[in-house]
Structure to design on (76 residues):
């Protein structure tokens, strides 16, 4: 998936996982192609808008918080 959209951080990765649960990979690829300008990959937010979806904020924040906590516990 990351070959079609711009994924810059953990929040983007979490949103991408959520998006893949909402629609098919083919739909994401088609939306990414529609949003792409030249050779650059579109931002994930643009792909979501193209699909008529908006990632829930709570999902993104809680997933990111969990990842931080898991890393801290693993370091102990």
């Amino acid at each position: 998936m990351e070959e079609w959209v711009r994924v810059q951080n953990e929040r983007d990765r979490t949103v991408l996982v959520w998006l893949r649960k909402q629609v098919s990979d083919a739909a994401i690829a088609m939306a990414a192609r529609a949003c792409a300008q030249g050779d650059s990959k579109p931002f994930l937010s643009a792909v979501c808008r193209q699909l008529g979806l908006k990632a829930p904020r709570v999902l993104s924040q809680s997933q990111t918080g969990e990842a931080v906590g898991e890393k801290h516990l693993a370091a102990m």
In short: Residues 14 and 63 are 7 Å apart (CA to CA).
